[in-house]
Amino acid sequence: MSATRRQILARSGALGAGIAFSGALSELFAGTAAAQDLGRTGYGPLVPDPAGLLDLPRGFRYRVLSREGDPLRSGEGPVPSNHDGMTALPGRHGRVHLVRNHENRPTAAHPVPTVPGLTYDPAGKGGCTALTLDGDRVLSERVAVAGTAVNCAGGPTPWRTWLTCEETEDLAGTNGYTKDHGFVFEVDPADPHRTGAVPLTAMGRFQHEAVAIDPARGIVYETEDAFLAPFGLFYRFLPERPLGGVGSLRAGGRLQAMRVPDVPDLSSVQEIGTRFDGVEWVDVPDPLASGTPIRLQDFGPRGITHAQKLEGCYWGGDHVYFVSSFARGADGSAADHYGQIWRYDPARRRLTLVIVFGPDTDVRLPGESPDNICLAPGGGLMVCEDGDGEQHVFGVTRRGEVYPLARGRQDIGTPGAPAWGEFAGVTFSPDGRTMYVNCYTPGTTFAVTGPWQG
């Protein structure tokens, strides 16, 4: 099952689409609720938006929930820049808590405002904001954690909080920071002061991307987004208090890195369905990376398994899935690819390559690759494209059929028009009726409704 970019364009009319899928997608959705209603070929061609913001199929509509630079409804300051990873958590009386990362570096136009009790390092510009929604109406919007740096992605917990991840390894004294960065922080969007701004140091200090928690065992899986060699690792964290609820991860635990015997670089694996039994987990020598970044530490004579651009991570059925956005030999990878999705089965200690994006397509820009990813409630997968030119949210079915669900408008040549960046943070409301997604820059959060089950 495969689709070239030209086939996608011919079928969908998605001019500029830069992504293609191949793989045994039935494996990906097996054992999940989303597997019950797959097989559709999409929702039809995208209709140009008269407002010039977001093109959607007929029957769908969007609402802008929040824009960078507008006042936060709390009055704490402007809405911060660089909207990235996000999740939607159920609240009381049918309300939804939307918690959103801001991947702010020191040069960010709108930093996350510092708030007493919620600020880790006053010099950090990143953090999270939380929106409380009643339908598509925003009831509140406020700072949930501040003073962090480069908050990229993360993941929800079974106890309805958010783990936000810093994608940096900057130490105190770098970029004016007063504290070390590269940690995970827990955020309770319903009551941010309940979680505060406490780094979960035992979970490691590295270039974090995303996390996923095994809801039966409480093991936390973590990806490391390292762009250049030596590339990142895939980790698991064994908490002292697994599934202990809010604040339990502060009790510490053991951090380990995945070793696939005789596979130093996952990019060397190209054939879909390839599986490795007997995956090993090796204790990280120095989780705080006090002297050496973890990916450079000594894991013994057998080494450790690396992969370029490890990004999305989520739990589905009895397995954890993680994404490698791309790999290219020019950067030091063992082979080129345009995106992989891997499945790890903890019970069997088995790793399987289940999806490959390209390279049997005419896509030539590895940056046009999968980034944030989630399961759709009506069946299928939603993938945020991260690349140049027009950006899309794509859907993919079990049959390997790809369709565009949304396209950001990019009128770079028009004076004063926004140059839309990548999509990020795609997630669905607990009832499955609304898709929330961010445009990274200018930071904008959309709520998309329509005939998801139609």
UniProtKB/TrEMBL annotation:
Coiled coil: none
Protein name as catalogued: DUF839 domain-containing protein
Pfam families xrefs: PhoX
Organism from which the protein derives: Streptomyces griseoviridis
PROSITE patterns registered for this protein in UniProt: TAT
Lineage: superkingdom: Bacteria
